[in-house]
Design brief:
about 400 residues, 3-stranded antiparallel beta sheet, 16 helices, 8 strands, about 45% helix
């Protein structure tokens, strides 16, 4: 006689599995009962509740979700999530709907510094087991000085916590309950913020950098420095950035990346007006380059027939600079003329704004010059100098004399 086949516990309930317990039976839906390799689908196991019809219905729904996950149209775009910190970072970086892909290349580089740091230090931690105490401990460790007696790395720790919030929020958006829980905890936590930068490039430093660059045959660096300081343009607006090639054709493409957002000669019209949409909020930057003798001297060094395409072209590659190459080249020149290491090329914009205020420009005029939508932001870039405190002292003395 043939062997009897055991009747399944539930009818029309793909993936269900019965487990015997002391108190009877517990029924689960198990992904591997449907397919051998669920390919990162979660959850892998779900305990079922209710009557037989309710449990069978739940099995059918979960199986349909699994099959949809395995379909070619989804498989080409999905990102597996394993429940760890490394997993949520990968999800944030690789998911096609992630806001990570919407930020500019220079912003993404800053994001990656913190994401890499988190992945290296706590990537193996399981999110479902974490508490706010763990996060507090991470922040403290990341803030510790690089060497004994050195300053605390407040900025490093703060940036990492901000990216942790962003990645965890996206994990919650993707429907992962453990990310939702930790995102809620992070929302209740506050971390020490780094102090605002007080460094800026002075007119004397900018001039020295320009002259040193010219002496080395690096007209590009001299012109870029002048554009940042004289017109208070952001570094990214001057040298541009290299993004992944979108395949649309045209433009400057090299090694799978396309250049964009930087200044081109086409941004300056025949009357000398520079008109460029900025990389922040699309505000227009409008400047008369004829009003700057420093700029006009450098522009006049470029023959008319060569004023085509990007304004800042690396002399050694013949292409627009990549960020690290620009920063490294500028730093060597700055070191050569005695600019302190804690003064950066990005501080040129703050230097130009500070000089404008010191020269007597009012806040609204400087706001427009810096292409800011908010005057408070312009004030932030206005670094403290002795000229300001001296001006206040003179005003106070003048006021006292009126009362004598």
């Amino acid at each position: 006689m043939g062997r009897l086949t055991r009747k399944p516990r539930l009818q029309d309930a793909p993936g269900h599995k019965v487990r015997k317990t002391k108190n009877g039976e517990t029924i689960y839906w198990v992904a591997k009962q449907v397919v051998r390799d669920p390919q990162g689908f979660t959850p892998l196991t779900v305990r079922l509740h209710g009557d037989d019809d309710a449990m069978a219905q739940r099995c059918r729904v979960l199986t349909a979700e699994l099959r949809a996950w395995l379909s070619p149209s989804v498989a080409n775009h999905r990102v597996a999530f394993d429940g760890t910190m490394k997993g949520v970072i990968a999800l944030y970086r690789r998911h096609p709907e992630s806001p990570y892909h919407d930020v500019k290349a220079n912003t993404r580089r800053m994001y990656d510094e913190s994401l890499d740091l988190l992945e290296k230090t706590v990537g193996a931690r399981v999110i479902g087991r974490l508490t706010g105490i763990d996060i507090k401990r991470w922040h403290g460790n990341l803030k510790k000085p690089a060497k004994a007696g050195g300053p605390e790395r407040v900025r490093r720790a703060y940036k990492a916590m901000q990216l942790l919030r962003i990645a965890m929020t996206f994990g919650a958006v993707c429907g992962h309950e453990e990310c939702e829980r930790l995102s809620s905890i992070l929302g209740k936590m506050r971390f020490e913020q780094p102090k605002r930068r007080e460094k800026f490039v002075s007119y004397q430093q900018s001039t020295a950098i320009i002259e040193e660059a010219l002496s080395r045959g690096l007209h590009s660096v001299a012109l870029g420095q002048a554009l940042q300081f004289e017109l208070t343009l952001r570094q990214s607006e001057v040298i541009g950035s290299w993004e992944e090639d979108d395949g649309a054709g045209g433009g400057i493409v090299h090694l799978g990346r396309k250049w964009g957002d930087g200044l081109t000669w086409g941004h300056i019209d025949a009357s000398g007006i520079l008109n460029k949409e900025t990389t922040k909020r699309g505000v227009k930057a409008l400047h008369n380059v004829l009003a700057s003798p420093v700029l006009m001297r450098l522009i006049d060094m470029v023959p008319q027939e060569k004023r085509i395409g990007p304004m800042i072209i690396c002399e050694t590659t013949g292409r627009p600079y990549r960020y690290r190459h620009w920063a490294g080249t500028w730093r060597k020149i700055a070191n050569a003329v005695g600019v302190p290491a804690d003064v950066w090329n990005r501080d040129s914009r703050a230097g130009g704004i500070t000089e404008g205020f010191d020269a007597g420009a009012d806040l609204e005029t400087m706001r427009q010059h810096a292409s800011h939508t908010d005057a408070a932001m312009t004030s932030h870039y206005n670094r403290l100098t002795v000229l300001k405190t001296e001006k206040v002292a003179k005003l106070r003395q003048a006021h006292r004399k009126k009362d004598e």
